[in-house]
């Protein structure tokens, strides 16, 4: 994203269950923990991602906030970014794409990456372009991306990769973009 002129968000693809569209992983004292935003429909119907509604019949907001706070309250930059993330999660946004967009905007602002966000107007089949990442990042597929290593809150034997960008942000603050900007493929 740092090298792109703009960030194009796909909102017309069909929702794919068990993807990063509604989940991320944070690092807790017990290891990586999934944070999953429950959705209505979507899992069983062909529904465009822009039409996926968040399921508020479950207490996911409180669980996510407590998990993030417990995992990162001792991180060096937690106090600078947590409040904005908490507000976005607690807002009660109706659609998943709106929650994801708000969290992306918070992240971009926090790492000082000023790029315009734009949404697709229709679904275009992936062309294999090296800048088309829509289907290349998935919890089911191993990525060629080599994550930058940094000090994490919980000292494990090895660096834990594949975590949410908030792990990077809470641990590195303003230098997060610098870590991400190194070509890692």
Sketch the major β-sheet. Answer: 2 strands, parallel
Rg result: 16 Å
Order of neighbouring strands in the sheet with most strands: 1-4
Coarse morphology: globular
Low-confidence stretches: none
Beta-strand percent range: 5-15%
Q: Please give the domain count.
A: 1
Q: Can you give the mean pLDDT?
A: 86
One letter per element, helices H and strands E, the order comes to: EEEHHHEHH
Helical residues, percent: 25-40%
Structural class: alpha+beta
Total helical elements: 5
Short key terms for the protein model shown above:
185 residues, alpha+beta, two-stranded parallel ribbon, two-stranded antiparallel sheet, 5 helices, 10% strand, globular
Protein model, in words:
This protein has one domain (7-180). The chain has helices at 60-72, 78-90, 96-110, 165-172, 176-180; strands spanning 7-9, 23-28, 31-36, 117-119. A hairpin with a 2-residue loop joins β2 (23-28) and β3. The chain is globular. α1 packs antiparallel against α2 (78-90) and α2 runs antiparallel to α3. It is α+β, with helices and mostly antiparallel strands and 185 residues long. The longest helix is centred in the middle third of the chain and has 15 residues, at 96-110.
């Amino acid at each position: 994203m740092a090298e792109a002129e703009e960030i194009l968000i796909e909102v017309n693809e069909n929702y794919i269950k068990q993807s990063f569209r509604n989940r991320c992983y944070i690092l807790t004292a017990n290891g990586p923990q999934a944070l999953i935003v429950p959705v209505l429909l979507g899992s069983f119907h062909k529904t465009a991602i822009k039409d996926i509604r968040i399921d508020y019949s479950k207490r996911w907001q409180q669980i996510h906030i407590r998990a993030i706070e417990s995992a990162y309250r001792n991180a060096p930059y937690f106090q600078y970014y947590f409040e904005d993330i908490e507000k976005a999660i607690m807002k009660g946004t109706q659609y998943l794409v709106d929650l994801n967009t708000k969290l992306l905007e918070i992240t971009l602002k926090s790492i000082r990456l000023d790029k315009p966000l734009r949404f697709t107007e229709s679904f275009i089949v992936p062309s294999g372009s090296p800048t088309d990442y829509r289907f290349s990042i998935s919890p089911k597929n191993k990525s060629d991306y080599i994550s930058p290593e940094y000090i994490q809150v919980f000292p494990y034997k090895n660096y834990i990769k594949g975590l949410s960008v908030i792990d990077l942000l809470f641990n590195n603050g303003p230098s997060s973009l610098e870590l991400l900007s190194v070509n890692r493929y």
